[in-house]
Design brief:
53 residues, mainly alpha, 51% helix, RNaseH-like_sf, Integrase_cat-core, Transposase, IS407 family
Amino acid sequence: MSLRQAKSLIENWRVEYNTDRPHSALGYLTPAQFVQAHQKEGLLPLGSMSVPY
């Protein structure tokens, strides 16, 4: 596996983990679902979840 392929594989995992995978700390919601639910309730300002980890 080349370095470019490894970087691509890791980036794909990171995106899936931070957007599509449910998290127990978020009540088993995906991060996107959590943000949507809490923005509707006015609990999160827009852009508050913009820092990827």
